[in-house]
Amino acid sequence: MSRLTCANPYCQKILSRENAYFADKKSTKAYCSRNCFALALSYEIIDAHQRGLKKAERRLKLGALLLKNKLVEPDQLLAALEQQKNSSQKLGEILLESGFITSKDLLRILALQAGVAPVSLDLNCSLKLKDFFPEELFWRLEFVVFLFNEREKELSLAAADAEDLLYLSDLFGRIFPDYAIKYFLEERDKILNILAANFGSNRYLKEKSFGEADNKKIVHMQQDAINFISFLQSIKAEDVRVLTEKNRLQISGRLSDYRFRIFFEP
Ligand SMILES: [Zn+2]
């Protein structure tokens, strides 16, 4: 009898072969469960995002798709990738500006790959799989899972960025290979608001920049805003939404029939 250890580096429990979870038939890596497998993949992604590695991989993946569908020539792709090294632009944008591809083709390929459609989510929608993945992953990839049905094996998620969706489809396809997964695009602001409502608003507010105001004042304003949001949640206000403007923060929502809008300034 061979002994196995869980391949999640943060777990490494000893497993018996009968109880081990394998991601696919060819895989030699064993995990305690699908959840442990998901965590291991999540940590890899979070780690790679911190080192800024995955972006390059994603670019290549989009490039490979475009080549495969004969939408760009190899030398055009190489030129665009070269140009991208010194810019903050997305690969798709560069290809568009260079006239190598039409916006229609670009959209088509992104949609084709991910089965993407726009969606309009309810701000009060509850985040599924919230305890399945680390919170960090949701914030890094900016996505929400808004439908998860284990019995019917259905899963729907929305992300803010079509390029991230390519990456998410890879991740979810590996963790839930037997699920019918639907991918959608949603406004970034809405995704962040839903994440903030489900996890608490701290990270959302922290990652916003507020002009030239000094740091202490901003921290103070953010703390006030966070306290205010928890207060709104405690009195069951609905549609609570945080919007950032140049150097102030707007919190809006609804209390029974009354709509309110409050501003915070550093
Ligand atoms: Zn494990």
Describe this structure in words.
The structure is a single chain. This protein is an alpha+beta fold. The chain folds into four domains: 3-51; 62-114; 135-190, no CATH class; 200-264, no CATH class. Helix content is 46%, strand content 19%. The protein has a four-stranded mixed β-sheet, sandwiched between helices. Strands 9-10-11 form a three-stranded antiparallel β-sheet. Strands 1-2 form a two-stranded antiparallel ribbon. β1 (4-5) and β2 form a beta hairpin. The mean pLDDT is 82. The structure holds zinc ion. Zinc ion (ZN) is lined by residues 6, 8, 11, 13, 31-32, 36.
Number of strands: 11
**Straight-line distance between termini:** 64 Å
Number of domains: 4
The overall pLDDT average reads 82
